[in-house]
Design a protein that fits this description.
Elements: H1 13-27, H2 29-42, H3 53-61, H4 65-85, H5 106-109, H6 117-130, H7 138-151, E1 163-166, E2 181-187, E3 191-196, E4 199-204, E5 208-210, H8 215-232, H9 238-247, H10 257-275
Antiparallel strand pairs: 1-2, 1-5, 2-3, 3-4
Length: about 280
């Protein structure tokens, strides 16, 4: 059989322009997905079909809430990089073909979500240099972030069962969680895994502040968490869920008399539904 040769045919100017436009769309796909997911979550546009954002993501897109959070956080980092690096260039399609080298997938910038906006830009520029002026791999970025964290390491002094307040600051993954109290369930080097009224998440140390409760207060909050979580998972009306969310932002280790009565009423409704 004759050997097939690949012909390299030059593109017309309009074809070249269209090719670059399509390539930029591919490179920005994760950014657009992250922005869309953030709006779906923040405006609760899933509420007509699903009770929680986690259930919606699993059924509609086939991935976990954590995967959605990765994309949302990556979109925030990407936007930050373009804002700082390309703020004087009026081209919304800027990617690696523009005034700077920009990420082309979520994994490349996942390690940057742990850093402040200015640090994100500095680390990304350093990663691009180490990659020889090309888009760096996630490993290159991760290694640089790890070196920074090792230089500035702060010992993790949190204890299992400790009650903390979540400080959302500018972390997009913690949007809606600011001010919530949480119980530490796992202590890591630079993070803690905590339980809030509606689930579990991993939070950096700078986004936590201990309430410095006594052991008996921590135990009391553990019991409150169990009660709120049990009722919240029963799929009650939205107004009821709002009340439970308010309990998730308590700044005291007890319920008032009225809060206790309302929660007991909801628990009885929950028990009634279980019987049915």
């Amino acid at each position: 059989m004759p050997t097939r040769h690949i012909c390299e045919l030059e593109l017309r100017a309009d074809e070249q322009s269209h090719r670059l436009h399509l390539e930029r769309k591919v490179e920005r796909a994760f950014f657009e997905a992250g922005k869309a997911l953030a709006e779906l979550r923040d405006r609760r546009l899933y509420r007509s079909t699903h009770r929680t954002f986690e259930e919606y993501c699993r059924d509609r897109f086939g991935h976990s809430r954590q995967q959605s959070n990765y994309l949302i956080a990556a979109a925030g980092v990407y936007e930050n990089l373009t804002t700082i690096g390309c703020q004087n260039v009026a081209n919304e399609d800027l990617t690696t073909n523009g005034c700077q080298i920009l990420p082309t997938n979520e994994r490349q910038i996942r390690p940057l979500t742990k850093l402040e906006p200015q640090q994100q830009q500095e680390v990304w520029q350093q990663a691009v240099q180490e990659a020889g002026g090309k888009v760096p791999t996630g490993k290159i970025v991760k290694d640089i972030v790890q070196r920074i964290m090792e230089r500035t390491q702060i010992p993790n002094t949190y204890q299992l069962g400790e009650v903390c307040q979540i400080l959302a600051k500018d972390n997009p993954e913690l949007r809606g969680k600011g001010g919530c109290w949480a119980i530490v369930t796992q202590v890591n080097d630079f993070t803690c895994t905590v339980r809030t009224w509606d689930g579990e998440l991993t939070v950096g140390l700078k986004h936590l502040k201990s309430y410095e409760y006594l052991p008996e207060d921590c135990q009391q909050m553990q019991e409150i968490w169990e009660r709120i979580s049990r009722v919240y998972s029963s799929g009650l009306e939205e107004s009821v869920q709002k009340f439970l969310e308010s309990l998730g932002k308590l700044k005291r280790a007890y319920l008032t008399g009225l809060e206790e009565k309302v929660l007991m009423l909801l628990e009885s409704e929950y028990a009634f539904r279980i019987i049915l």
